[in-house]
Specification:
Blueprint: E1 4-6, H1 13-24, E2 32-34, H2 41-52, E3 60-62, H3 69-81, E4 88-90, H4 99-116
Parallel strand pairs: 1-2, 2-3, 3-4
Helix pairs in contact: 1-2, 2-3, 3-4
Length: 117
């Protein structure tokens, strides 16, 4: 079964993000997911967040370089809270501007780091 999926840098856009979300829901054994630099936008990120939270074995998530927007950032933060096995998170340059999304992601990253100590 597939444990690592890397499709970074393909500029799949929002529609591709939504399609990818449908596909990864079935990949329950994924431990590493790299989907950075795909410009999935807010809608794509919301769909991906919904799928990602079901990947209970996920230890590594790379979602840097996507224009996820405020709603996408909030959805992503909510999904990450569900991932108890997550040890590595790459969220650089996700292009969110809404303070609530920024604060939520920052809080989440800090909390994850503290829980690992």
């Amino acid at each position: 079964s597939l444990t690592t999926l890397g499709i970074s840098g393909n500029n799949i856009g929002s529609e591709g993000g939504i399609a990818l979300a449908s596909a990864i829901k079935a990949l329950k054994s994924l431990t590493q997911l790299y989907i950075g630099d795909n410009n999935v936008g807010s809608e794509g990120c919301i769909a991906l967040a919904s799928a990602i939270k079901e990947l209970k074995s996920l230890t590594t998530l790379g979602i840097s370089g996507n224009n996820i927007g405020s709603e996408g950032g909030i959805a992503l933060a909510s999904a990450i809270k569900e991932l108890k096995s997550l040890t590595t998170l790459g969220i650089n340059a996700v292009s969110y501007t809404h303070l609530r999304a920024h604060e939520t992601l920052r809080y989440l990253v800090c909390r994850l780091l503290l829980e690992k100590k």
